[in-house]
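Example 4.3 (complexes with small molecules)
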Amino acid sequence: PRPIYLSRHGESQYNVVHKVGGDSDLTQTGIMYAKQLGKYFIQELEGNRNIKMFTSTMKRALHTSNEVCELLGVEYYSLKALDEINPGICDGLTYQQIADKFPQDYEERKMNKLTYRYPRGESYLDVISRVEQIIFEIERSRLPVIVIAHQAILRCLYAYFHEHEVPEIPKLNIPLHQVIKLVPATYYCKETRIKIDA
Ligand code: F6P
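Answer. The structure with 6-O-phosphono-beta-D-fructofuranose bound is encoded below.
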């Protein structure tokens, strides 16, 4: 069975100031992560270029993927369906600023992160449905798959392969600077987490 590798993009400008949304680029640390990630894949794939790689259309994911692909000599598909959850009117705010500016929304999301939809944005349920098409694509692939995307997106993909209950999705732990390697077996998915120092 072919492995599926999941990684968030390297640390972004917004990550360090705890802002949600936006389309910020990587920090220097994030760029270092992307380069280390490329080196990890060179070793891990033992020079095999016969892989499928997917990323989003956001700067932080594209920059990470470009660094990886430059080292691996492969190409990627950039898909809008893999863009991070759209936080609508809360775009560019920190969680604290959301709590101050939109206290009711903040509470509602805390109460039900799965169904809460950011005004003019998305809910986790919205994200799950747009990510579904990519899941089929990944499942169909006979080649190893690399997905470089975002926290909410990877929660959905990860939950699918581990058969987590849908309400668990928004709570799953998908840290920065870590690769999650999944190897689907008949009744379960074997998981290895590889921390990569930036
Ligand atoms: O903070 C990084 C980030 O990817 C944001 O852009 C996004 O809004 C958030 O994580 C999603 O995580 P949560 O649903 O826990 O707020």
